[in-house]
Specification:
- The protein has 412 residues and is α+β, with helices and mostly antiparallel strands.
- It folds into 3 domains: 74 residues, Phosphorylase Kinase, domain 1; 162 residues, Transferase(Phosphotransferase) domain 1 (Transferase(Phosphotransferase), domain 1, Orthogonal Bundle); 136 residues, no CATH class.
- Helices cover 40% and strands 16% of the residues.
- The protein is built from 15 helices and 12 strands.
- A hairpin with a 2-residue loop joins strand 4 and strand 5.
- Helix 4 packs across helix 7 and helix 12 packs across helix 15.
- The chain starts with a strand and ends with a helix.
Amino acid sequence: MLGRELGRGAAGRVYVAEDTVLARPIAIKFIANLDAGARQQFLVEARAVAKLQHPNVVSIYRVATLQDRPYIVTELVRGASLAELAKPVPWEAALDIAIGLARGLAAVHRVNVVHCDLKPSNVVIDHEGMAKIIDFGLARPITDRGTAGDTPAGTPDYMAPEVWQGEPPSRRSDVYGLGAVVFELIAGAPPFGKIAAADLRTRVISDDAPALRELVPQVDPELAAVVARCLSRDREARFADGGELRQALERLHASRRPSAQIGESPYRGLLPFEASHRGVFFGRRSEVDAVVERLRSDPIVLVTGDSGVGKSSLCRAGVIPAVVEGELGGAWHALTIIPGHLPLTSLAMALGDLALVPLLRETPALLARELRRHAGDRGLIVFIDQFEELITLGDPGEVAALDAGLATLAEG
């Protein structure tokens, strides 16, 4: 049963539908403007992708034709596309998304298919926080070296130089597209900005992509190097395929895991205390007790004081461990966020679900529901460190949504 239209583009239209046999929601994409030969090629390619089952790739349930119009039936991915996500995002979040995309792309390349249209709107973050590649309407087999048309396949901001020049897309052009998506997540705009297609073609073919660290100095240099390699004008200099890119990103992620500190001095001096320092955090028991007592009755407690007096240490090494260890009764766990420029995105990252960002922007009152869902059968204490960043640094739209959500919590 066909429902509302989800979206449309040059390649066709997508609708929400209901599988009445299995009683599940699905998505149906009708592919536009294909001649008989192209229709047959499309069906062959889509069936190849349909054999693929991977958590980072949308599942294809059926490929067929209706009145000579081919269509694809896929799972309906509930969540938000990267196009809907407020940008830029912290580079750590971009790295997590990139790893998921590279894993999905590696799986696609293993079945000898290229996606040909990697872009933010073709990546959805589902409600489990999983990045999924969707929309295989332009996909084609890697073995197809047929004549390239005058009009390149893809979306201009994410197309590789050789595709602009009319060459067939390849695994390496998909790698370029993924690199352009990650660049936009971190920098807030595609590599060459938003310019006319004719000017963009010249820039992409003639100029190197801007250095990510010149635009975002705080980005991890190794991640910036990976993105730069993806965006190389020389396709042979790029990662060979999604699998090679996945390995590079996973190595980078593994190298960032904190190593055990051997022989760390118990005397913190002027360093902040963390929860792991609970055993050496002394002298502020009365303050800890005061905050915990307030938490028994108040849904929100504001800890204030001059800069440097130890507000963060009090909460991290005193209040939070006390609550987690049972001083409020029952089982509790803690969630810590640092608001930064995108406070709502930081909260969504901590909850493991970036799809919450557009949801909470639209309906901030749902924050309480999402926090309860995250808590499960335990209590949840949320610590917003550097709360003043909501005023001094925050994106106005995200700040307004988070403020409204917190106000709902305060009202009980």
